[in-house]
Amino acid sequence: MTQFIFRRLLLLVPVLFGIVLVTFVIVRSIPGDPCIAMLGERATQAKCEDFRERYGLNDNIGVQFVRYISTLATGDLQDSISQSRPVIEYLSERLPMTLEITVSAMLVATGAGLVLGLVSALYRNTLIDVGAMGLANVGVSMPVFWLGLMLAYFFAIILKGTPFQLPPGTRLSAGVSIAPLAETWGWAEEPTGWLGFAYALLSNSVVFNSLITGNVEVLIDALRHLIVPALALGTIPLAIIARMTRSSLLDVLGQDYVRTARAKGLIERLVIFRHALRNALIPIVTVIGLQMGGLLSGAVLTETVFSLPGVGTAITTAIFARDYPVVQGFTLSVALIYVIVNLVVDVSYTFLDPRIRLDA
Amino acid sequence: MTTSTASTPLLNAEPITEHRSPATEALRRLLKHRSAQAGLFLIGALILVAIFADLIAPYGFREVFRDGKRFEAPCVHLLGCDPAETEHLFGLDGNSRDLFSRVVYGSRLSLMIGLVTNIGAILVGALIGAVAGFAGGWWDTVLMRSMDVLMAFPSLLLAIAIVSALGPGLINALLAIAVVSIPVYARLVRASVLSVKDLEYVQASRALGASPIRLLFTRILPNAVTPVLVQGTLGIATAILDAAALSFLGLGAEKPTPEWGLMLGEERARALSNPHLLIFPGLAIMITVLAFNLLGDGLRDALDPRLKR
Fold this sequence. Notes:
The structure holds two protein chains of two kinds.
Chain A: H1 2-28, H2 34-39, H3 45-54, H4 61-73, H5 87-122, H6 127-140, H7 144-158, H8 181-184, H9 193-204, H10 206-212, H11 216-253, H12 256-263, H13 268-305, H14 311-320, H15 324-352
Chain B: H1 3-6, H2 9-12, H3 22-32, H4 34-51, H5 53-56, H6 99-135, H7 137-151, H8 155-166, H9 170-196, H10 200-207, H11 212-220, H12 225-248, H13 260-266, H14 276-303
Helix pairs in contact in B: 3-14, 4-6, 4-14, 6-7, 6-9, 6-12, 6-14, 7-9, 8-9, 9-12, 10-11, 12-13, 12-14, 13-14
């Protein structure tokens, strides 16, 4: 087991190197001068020369790549040009938002998708099944950003005045804010280094922070703001998970061991949950894992629609500002998360199905 | 089967009247498939709308109504709108243009986007997959590991990065979407090539002196047609969604192109006050994508011989 995971991690190295190379090349070929993008009208010849010297933009592209790789190897994502501070610090502010909507969308999608697929399979070829699968088909065909706008309209305008009215965007209501964990707990200073990054991620996650400090008012406000984006982002994976659950379960329900379980007089609920569903889970878990990429793509759009301060909005802003280190560092982090999730999915098969060998 | 025939089932089995080729058989299954029927119907309707856009759209997609108010709500005479007013089925957009006409013209663009990007991606992807599978060794390692790298990015994020490197615009957006879709086709084709390249009929052909190119094109690649066809149809749906997303973010089509995603992006700020500006272009995207998804599902069922009943 450990050996399998280790080997898979080793195989990641060339892929990660490729990811770094691709982002580096793409980012460097973005047209336009970062100096002019940064300094605007104040950009004089001399100032730009100075600027380029400071950020090492005058060196040969190969030299720049080697330097980038070697600083990266020490865990340093360099400094943001437009923010004049480490990229990693900026990342620790933006990543929690993206993770919050991605995770909540995944929860919505998995929960509702499993139920919908299960019901469809149990009532196959009835009106319920046809209706649910029709909905699923429509669900996978909707553009995330359009669905987001429509849901915002529905919850903010149509449901106005009802208890179900929800805010159409932003992270927290005006006037609501939360203090960093260190301040709440009276720490003398915030941790630094990798521990500091982990601390910042947790502290900047409004949901985690308010949950752990028991700040109910902020927690409820944050969750109310999360519902609409999560619904919008979760719809496509929801539909895909529902379809996969249905077909996988139908597959399994036709197997001999299910007939055996029924023949020995087991009640239907146990047949479904203990015998069928567990075996149907493998393709479902695969699909859930595969949806992560789509969710991270969708998060970029959802953040834009709801003006949420996440990774996606940061990348698009950084592209227009020619902030190379931010685009590189952020894209790299998202790709890294994606690759790791895929690895976790692969490993989880072995828990679900001991028959799967680990020799791959 | 009725009881009278139960004793002699073989004699009463359906007689084999004609021989059907696998392609005809698949087509027959496809035309009987519910969701394929729905998909084909919708795609047919969309193609007609695209071809006859000039006849269907009452106004040009750039025509501005000086007397009309911006963001005017839809006015349909049949639904009780004052006949004295000019009819605008979907209302007017932020530049006082007839939204219905713009949505109608948009169908041309979206169908074109879906087809062009996928044909491009299929050609390049098939070439990469064929070389990797057929040549093996270093070629295989280098090509497929590069595909892995492309697949390690969430697709829209990579497309955004490529468009920003090439500069915003519809053509560059199409290029980016095509690049992002290449790995799927490369993998599919490689897998098909690997599954047949050592089979006896291929060896026989080789023994008869067929050149590698001839082997590849006449003996091996035809096996990849089925999976590529299914993926291609579903890929059109994805490409239309991605292109709309890029235009929505301001990285794709430029004003005043009647591109559905761009129309949504332009009027985004009006979502809460004038929802009609967003409902219709969005519905258009959804219906188009749904059509290709339905057809893709139908194709997969029809072309998979294991599902034959």
